[in-house]
Specification:
single chain; 94 residues; mainly beta; Jelly Rolls; 6-stranded antiparallel beta sheet; 1 helix; 13% helix
């Protein structure tokens, strides 16, 4: 079973109501923002640098990051792009 399928199954077992796969081109940036409820990211290919609470996380395939509600964060996609599985408590809260 491939990594994305395992990530999706994990989130389904945890009860996340909205799960989808997403990809971004190399160098894509997300300025500081926050979500109204919990969001989780599972990296399946490439890399993502995400800064939250003054700490920068270098995320690679197999890494998971849970983002608490209303927590400001920003992100930059690595040089090879990034694919990930996203779980949201509120649909469209990305």
């Amino acid at each position: 079973m491939e990594l994305s399928e395992r990530c999706i199954q994990t989130l389904e077992k945890e009860g996340w109501p909205h799960i989808y796969e997403w990809s971004d081109a190399p160098g894509t940036t997300y300025p500081e923002h926050q979500h109204q409820d919990k969001v989780v990211l599972f990296i399946t290919e490439g890399s993502l640098e995400l800064t939250m609470g003054g700490q920068t996380h270098e995320l690679r395939p197999g890494d998971r990051l849970d983002i608490p509600p209303e927590t400001p964060h920003l992100a930059t996609v690595g040089p090879e792009g990034c694919q990930y599985v996203v779980g949201e408590m509120v649909e469209g809260d990305s």
